[in-house]
Amino acid sequence: MALTVGLRPLTRALLRPWARVPGAALGRPAAGSGDGVRCFGSPRVLVEPDPAAGVAVMKMRNPPVNSLSLEFLTELLISLEKLENDKTFRGIIITSDCPGIFSAGLDLLEMYGRDPAHCAEYWKAVQELWLRVYLSNLVVIGAINGISPAGGCLLSLSCDYRVLANNPKYAIGLNETLLGIIAPFWFKDVLVNTIGHRAAERALQLGFLFPPSDALQVGIVDQVVPEDQVQSTARSVMAQWLAIPDHARQLTKNLVRKPTADRLLQQRDADIQNFVRFISRDSIQKSLHVYLEKLKQKKG
Ligand SMILES: CCCCCCCCCCCCC/C=C/C(=O)SCCNC(=O)CCNC(=O)[C@H](O)C(C)(C)COP(=O)(O)OP(=O)(O)OC[C@H]1O[C@@H](n2cnc3c(N)ncnc32)[C@H](O)[C@@H]1OP(=O)(O)O
């Protein structure tokens, strides 16, 4: 897939892609790999390659909550692009290195009190990450080991298969309305594709965050397993998916997903403008302020 990363050169230059990860650089071999295979990545994305299996585990580590800041999105994009272009890899498992949190979704501080140019750049990066994960030629499995609201849920929904840890503290869903904002049409499309129109209609309007058993029942995840089995289950599922010839699976994936992606691709600029207009409204900024204050107060 020929997507341009489309971020300002400055943003990219500020990052140090493929910087060796402290600890990994000290020689921590990747799990399941033979001698000499080392983890790599960037400050916020740890990649554990298993070349023999053709699989890489991508661990998000943007503490405390893996919120999808512009820098983090950029690093995720660079990691994905690199893995996509490396013929060694046929599948990736996306998981979190932050205990109890898969991803808290979009970084609210990228949308609150920012100027329109920044919001536009941020939204372009959000679109880009979605397109890259959703249309990836690789098998993408989400090993969801923590709470996964809004943008975190979108990331999960963009995987080919989702395994959620069975912990009552974890929940997944598009909860935008609870923040006084709305899920964009392409978030909505992906949810409708996954759980059907009626269930999506209720979930979106009410901002449902589904705990594991409900998540499985509604079909927003494919499997719920004990927490200590999330990674091994993702690995077994990956083996099943990799048993299918790549070309047949990739063409089929494209057949199924392209119409949804095309809806955004045909109006990316308009979508950015809509986002910037919407997020810049005083009423929306006030809602975000209230929500951020609530998050602070929760701490006591
Ligand atoms: C006409 C209409 C046209 C429309 C056109 C289209 C318009 C498009 C509209 C806009 C679309 C936007 C889509 C948005 C998607 C999103 O993803 S929004 C984000 C949603 N996320 C959440 O609601 C999660 C919020 N966070 C939490 O609930 C909790 O933090 C947690 C994840 C459950 C973790 O709890 P806990 O471990 O107790 O940690 P906390 O103490 O709460 O948090 C630690 C610090 O992290 C900060 N933080 C948390 N989440 C975020 C976040 N998403 N972004 C930024 N920062 C976050 C939190 O404030 C704490 O900070 P400090 O107090 O400074 O430590």
UniProtKB/TrEMBL annotation:
Catalytic activity: (2E)-tetradecenoyl-CoA = (3Z)-tetradecenoyl-CoA; (3Z)-dodecenoyl-CoA = (2E)-dodecenoyl-CoA; a (3E)-enoyl-CoA = a 4-saturated (2E)-enoyl-CoA; (3Z)-decenoyl-CoA = (2E)-decenoyl-CoA
Enzyme class: isomerase
Record gene name: ECI1
Chain's role: Key enzyme of fatty acid beta-oxidation. Able to isomerize both 3-cis (3Z) and 3-trans (3E) double bonds into the 2-trans (2E) form in a range of enoyl-CoA species, with a preference for (3Z)-enoyl-CoAs over (3E)-enoyl-CoAs. The catalytic efficiency of this enzyme is not affected by the fatty acyl chain length.
MF GO annotations: delta(3)-delta(2)-enoyl-CoA isomerase activity
GO cellular component: mitochondrial matrix
Family: Belongs to the enoyl-CoA hydratase/isomerase family.
Lineage summary: Eukaryota, Metazoa, Chordata, Craniata, Vertebrata
Keywords per UniProt: Acetylation, Fatty acid metabolism, Isomerase, Lipid metabolism, Mitochondrion, Transit peptide
Protein name as it appears in the record: Enoyl-CoA delta isomerase 1, mitochondrial
